[in-house]
Amino acid sequence: MSDIRHSLLRRDALSAAKEVLYHLDIYFSSQLQSTALPIVDKATIELVEDFIFHVPKDRGVQLKRMSSLQELQLLEIMCSYFQEQSKDAVRQLIFSALFSPQGNKADDSRMAMLGKLVSMAVAVCRVPILECAASWLQRTHALYCVRLAKVLVDDYCSLVPGSLQTLQHIYTASPRFCCQFITAVTALYDFSSEDLIPSPGLLEMVVTWVVDDPRLTLITFLNMPISASLPLGSLGVTPLLGLVRWCVKAPLAKRAKESAPTADTESFYSKLHLGVLQILLMLQVHLTEKNLFGRLELLQFEHVVQLVEELNPLNASREIELSLNRLAQVLQVSLSAGALLCTREDLRSLCSRLPHNNLLQLVMSGPVQQPPHSPFQPGFYPHIHTPPLGYPPRPSPPAHNTHPSHPAPQFLPGMSFPYRPIR
Fold first, then answer.
1. What is the DSSP string of 117-160?
2. Where is there biased composition of kind Pro residues (predicted)?
3. Residue 183: is its pLDDT beyond 90?
4. Model pTM score
């Protein structure tokens, strides 16, 4: 490895970077022939950081830095390499070796080049790079994922007017990247401040994706092995949490803005709410097919608790009423679909801090429990789900005593609840 380093020191910056890429290709192709799990050694990482990101470990060595033109040429070389490399495993390994954060001072340079490379890949439709970026977004800490999302939003929604259509077309080029991008961008724009409210253009693009094909948001989940677990701190397996947050918090967001949202913006959030309910209903089928119904919590109760805590119940008005109506519908359909696993007592305790809302009260009361040994029917769900995988069971709620003069309503078999978005 020292011989390679000395050879690279004699080259110009662009030539040295190209040579490192060539070295990575040989290194990983050779490892894949002998082992199914190649390892990136420390020396290889140092070559990448020294001659591609120019963050040397040796203070006594002055490395040549690339000019802006040379950096653009390097990005074009990377685009061509990933496009022409026929082995997906080699592509993924090299992408990971280049751009996986190491927790050191090279990460800023690493993220800056990653943002430029993915932005270029969107512009020229380099699907192999978008697929590698989708895998990167799935296994990398959310802190870095939202940084990449911010770069793409700035490039295509802010800097160049009219370029949003280019980003929107990645839906047909790489649905998997599109799914991960939605997850990252909804995590970034969490309505915690006025600057973290999605722009009308970004909102319209996400709503168009979700409404046109709700199944798009489930691609990562549907393609993950059942036994797979996400790395600690990574994005969720679906963008459900972020999309629910957008729908529920949007009516309250205009309090922080000087101008009221347009009718088009309100219409987009209403369409998005309908799309979220459709996604949840689709989940019921997929969870049942995978034998995970009542065992896998895709909308975690802890995240719902956090969302409720983010709602501002002060000055209760039409806006908070709309937010609570949407929250109630999401909770109802999530429970029915098996995406949210909690008891009615959990909901009553959680929502007790919110202003009174009729629809929310109905959800907390819950439907009549299924008769024993009755077959599963759409629109019905057990009062308490089976404990999710890896989670301890929550305590059972106390029995609900119905007043004698007000008998419990009976649900007729085959009568489905008409889920409609709250407008």
1. HHHHHHHHT-HHHHHHHHHHHHHSBHHHHHHHHHHHHIIIIIIS
2. 389-398
3. yes
4. 0.83
